[in-house]
């Protein structure tokens, strides 16, 4: 047997060399990247081991990376690819499902819809995971009547900073449960969750559309009639000073509303990808003119008023999922999505914010207005009663920072706040002011993660 | 953390009294700045720099002791800074011009210039790179010079140190490429500063504020190399390729 050559003195590890598992991560807005060690645990035990061994740069779970900012990245740390936790167990007796944290809403719908069920809350994209939906406490078009995702969760398993698995529920360790809902991944790693489902008899949505000539008309119609619908959202023409918009409202269509052909397969579900955005697009593709043209077309394509139109789930809930990687259209500079909520008493800030964004020349092509219902008990959950506006704008617009800071100030003064899942630029002071239960949450978090190993770029940026 | 709009929260200046670095800090978007460390030898200029930034309402401005020539201390200084919190932006701005005449007469003076401008920068640059790699993000700005493109008779000791520094910084940028950390090499021409006071001005002379603005824009765009002013890139493109006799004549005229 040949003897191995004796090692010379141990060569120092080159700190600049890259590990195979290191990846540059950004949010959906493709801004502020950071490098992390991405590891995919295959079991709860492996996950607990990774948590126990987490280094000083911390550890964080990541789903499908649809948070717009830096919530699902942790520079220098370990980022957990949760796609291995993708189990889906439907319980038709109780009308609930138990799903792995890495299971996507996309895969859930493929299982649930043909069986006659729908997820309790869906965001504007189905490319999110169960873990992410809990961490961001996502909301959908039904918030005004049914609340956010966390309100429908019966139980969840969480690996805490102690490396233990905690079985949490609103009635069991409620403090830990609600700190985890909306806790942006900072209380531990969710491995699975059980939540309510909506029984459906068809896979179509019965949609009423109203085109409104100005923002006042949009808002008064929403105040007046939103209560009559399970789902409601308005698209606003951000280019037009009138603030005109299109409200779409609806509910799951009963099978009785389907025609003969549709009735053959009432629960058919087959969302299509129509196109994929090319990888390299010039940063000037989106400019004042293209955005103006898009907004004009979007407004015109809507009927003035139409009742009971049957739309597939994908078209009604997730129109942008039809274009894969649509976030590339903003070019290499990336974009931010600015979303705030203000109480009804500050509804005027919707108009003001749109005006300021127009003035700074920040073209937004998908601006969405929605009314929120009651908040849930989670200290860091975003939704609260009032109006929420979401606008996406290219990050490199000159002077954007100052304008957003100004709007932030007004939002804060009115008792409103920004959404962590969208945020990529607010200040730590803004968070402290607008999430009054932050210190309470931090106290609970510190119990659950005494070593402070769960962290993210967002947590560092906002001093959470 | 640097935010989506490129606004940093923390800055470390190596060469804490550098006028270009100071102007760069002033030209940065300031709404998120909460920690600005000016590293240099304790002197009046460093003290004044802290005062002037604080007077502008920037919070968390602090001076720390740092000696470019004392390379054995670099690891400790850099670790101390990064252990206390992430650094989004590092500006490597120290450097001396030296006296070419004196250096030719006394080579130990040339060694001083080389130690500060090149050896010191290589040492601290690698320590900074190690920590930027570890945190997974951050930018390092290295103040090189057009003198790095082609050394002139009148200051080739200085020019050669900048040429070495420039090559080092480019290589470091390549080593860090795609790692979340980045290096921006800045090549200013003649800048009106304390270092050049009393010297005859060259064409395309700028002020520290002009260089600062160019640096901030380049950072925002994610550039790797930038000249100040920008058009110097074309001038130096020609200069670099001039035959020796022609270049000698031109540089003699300039003195």
Notable traits:
heterodimer; A: 464 residues; alpha+beta; Alpha-Beta Plaits; eight-stranded antiparallel sheet; globular; B: 255 residues; alpha/beta; Rossmann fold; seven-stranded parallel sheet; 9 helices; 7 strands; 47% helix; 15% strand
CATH level-3 fold name of the domain at 204-426 in chain A:
Alpha-Beta Plaits
CATH superfamily of chain B: NAD(P)-binding Rossmann-like Domain
C-alpha end-to-end distance of chain A: 58 Å
Total of DSSP H or I helical runs spanning 4+ residues of chain A: 14
What is the residue-averaged pLDDT of chain B? 95
CATH topology of chain B: Rossmann fold
Contiguous helical run count of chain B:
9
Task: Strand order, main sheet of chain B: write it out.
Answer: 3-2-1-4-5-6-7
Instruction: Tell me the helix content of chain A.
Output: 25-40%
What is the overall silhouette of chain B?
globular
Q: Please give the CATH class of chain B.
A: Alpha Beta
Helix % of chain B is 40-55%
Distance between the termini of chain B: 46 Å
Low-confidence stretches of chain B: none
| Major β-sheet annotation of chain A | 8 strands, antiparallel
Mean pLDDT of chain A: 93
The rounded Rg of chain A comes to 23 Å
């Amino acid at each position: 047997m040949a003897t191995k050559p004796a090692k010379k003195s141990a060569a120092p590890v080159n700190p600049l060399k890259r590990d195979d598992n290191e990846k540059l991560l950004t949010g959906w807005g493709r801004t502020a990247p950071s490098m992390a060690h991405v590891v995919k645990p295959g079991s709860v035990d492996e996950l607990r081991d990774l948590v126990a061994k987490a280094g000083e740069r911390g550890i964080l779970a990541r789903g499908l990376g649809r948070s717009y900012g830096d919530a699902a990245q942790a520079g220098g740390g370990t980022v957990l690819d949760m796609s291995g936790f993708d189990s889906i167990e439907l319980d038709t007796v109780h009308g609930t499902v138990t799903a792995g944290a890495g299971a996507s809403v996309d895969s859930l719908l493929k299982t649930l819809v043909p069986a006659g069920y729908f997820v309790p809350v869906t965001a504007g994209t189905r490319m999110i995971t169960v873990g992410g939906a809990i961490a961001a406490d996502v909301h959908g078009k039904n918030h005004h009547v049914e609340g956010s995702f966390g309100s429908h969760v019966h139980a969840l398993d969480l690996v805490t900073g102690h490396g233990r698995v905690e079985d949490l529920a609103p009635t069991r360790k409620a403090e830990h449960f609600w700190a985890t809902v909306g806790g942006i991944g900072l209380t531990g790693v969710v491995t699975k969750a059980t939540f309510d489902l909506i029984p459906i008899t068809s896979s179509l949505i019965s949609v009423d559309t109203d085109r409104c000539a100005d923002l006042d008309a949009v808002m008064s119609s929403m105040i007046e009639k939103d209560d009559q619908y399970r789902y409601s959202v308005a698209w606003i023409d951000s280019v037009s000073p009138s603030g005109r918009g299109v409200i779409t409202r609806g509910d799951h269509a009963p099978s009785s509303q389907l025609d003969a052909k549709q009735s053959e397969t009432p629960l058919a579900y087959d969302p299509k990808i129509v196109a994929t955005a090319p990888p390299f697009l010039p940063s000037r593709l989106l400019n004042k003119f293209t955005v103006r043209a898009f907004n004009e077309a979007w407004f015109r394509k809507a009927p003035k008023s139409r009742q009971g139109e049957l739309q597939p789930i994908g078209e009604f809930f997730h129109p942008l999922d039809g274009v894969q990687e649509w976030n590339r259209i903003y070019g290499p500079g990336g974009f931010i999505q600015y979303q705030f909520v203000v109480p009804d008493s500050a509804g005027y800030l919707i108009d003001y914010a749109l005006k300021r964004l127009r003035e700074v020349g920040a073209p937004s092509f998908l601006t969405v207005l929605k009314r929120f219902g009651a908040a849930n008990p989670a200290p860091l959950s975003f939704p609260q009663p009032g109006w929420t506006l979401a606008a996406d704008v290219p990050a490199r617009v000159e002077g954007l920072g100052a304008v957003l800071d100004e709007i932030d100030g007004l939002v804060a003064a009115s008792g409103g706040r920004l959404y962590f899942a969208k945020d990529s630029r607010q200040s730590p002071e803004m968070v402290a002011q607008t999430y009054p239960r932050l210190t309470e949450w931090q106290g609970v978090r510190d119990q659950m993660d005494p070593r402070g190993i769960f962290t993210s770029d967002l947590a560092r940026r906002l001093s959470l | 953390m640097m935010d989506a709009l490129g606004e940093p929260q923390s800055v470390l200046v190596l060469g804490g009294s550098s006028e270009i670095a100071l102007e760069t800090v002033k030209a940065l978007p300031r709404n998120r700045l909460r920690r600005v460390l000016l590293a240099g030898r304790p002197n009046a200029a460093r003290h004044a720099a802290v005062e002037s930034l604080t007077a502008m309402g920037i919070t968390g401005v602090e001076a720390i002791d740092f000696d470019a020539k004392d390379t054995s201390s670099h690891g400790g200084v850099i670790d101390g800074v990064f252990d206390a919190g992430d650094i989004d932006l590092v500006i490597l701005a120290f450097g001396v011009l030296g006296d070419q005449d004196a250096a030719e007469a006394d080579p130990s003076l040339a060694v001083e210039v080389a130690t500060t401008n090149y050896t010191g920068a290589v040492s601290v640059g690698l320590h900074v790179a190690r920590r930027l790699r570890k945190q997974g993000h951050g930018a390092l700005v290295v103040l090189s010079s057009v003198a790095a493109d082609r050394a002139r008779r009148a200051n080739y000791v200085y020019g050669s140190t900048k040429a070495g520094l420039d090559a080092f910084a480019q290589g470091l940028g390549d080593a860090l490429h795609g790692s979340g950390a980045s290096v921006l090499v800045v090549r200013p021409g003649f800048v009106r500063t304390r270092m050049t006071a009393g010297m005859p001005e060259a064409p395309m002379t700028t002020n520290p504020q002009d260089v600062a603005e160019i640096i901030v824009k380049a950072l925002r765009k994610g550039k790797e190399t930038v000249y100040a002013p920008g058009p110097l890139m074309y001038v130096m493109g020609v200069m670099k390729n001039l035959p020796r006799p022609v270049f000698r004549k031109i540089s003699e005229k300039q003195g």
